[in-house]
Amino acid sequence: MKGIIFRCLEELVINTKGMDVWEQLLEKHCPEDRVYVSARSYPDEELVGLATSVSQALNLSMPETLKAFGTYLFGFLAKRHTSIVEEFKSFEQLIISIDDVIHQEVQKLYEEPNLPTIEAKIYDEHTIHLVYRSPRKLCFCAEGLIYGCAEHFNKTIKIEHPLCMHNGEKECLLKITHS
Ligand code: HEM
Ligand code: ZN
Q: Where's the Heme NO-binding domain (predicted)?
């Protein structure tokens, strides 16, 4: 996982819980003197360890924690990659372009990123069906990112998650309803 993702978690924890809590988390889950550099890669287990402790500190389930993190992550990424996000004039347009445009740009900017496969199709005027596949099984983070994207466009949305890799399916299905 790229450092930029860890930097976002760092900002979120420091803003909500303070620097001391973040320092404690680093001590528990990371090698000594860990500093996250956005473009470098760090072990996925480190993120999972940190997120597990955050969920305990906030008294939230892991899915709820990853959703909250994902929601915050969208704004964090959008701020750092303005030209990529500014291309899109609507929520719907952005969501159907995640794989072909956004993560394609990420491939050019970052060395060997680990990205999911996302297939998003317009189902009807108010519904998008999104299929998520990744060995990292971060579908709840994806849900959060989609909520964060909706906030970015001032939209109210609802997401159903009827098929999930965490329930033994080979992929996740997210049904997004928007106004
Ligand atoms: C990684 C989904 C928008 C850049 C990821 C991951 C997910 C995801 C779930 C975690 C890796 C995995 O699941 O295997 C989404 C969704 C988006 C979105 C649903 C929109 C709603 C963006 C945007 C950017 C971006 C706008 C930046 C321009 C990245 C980067 C990574 C990533 C840098 C980390 C790659 C790595 O650690 O190697 N994305 N993403 N994403 N995404 Fe996106
Ligand atoms: Zn899932």
A: 2-161
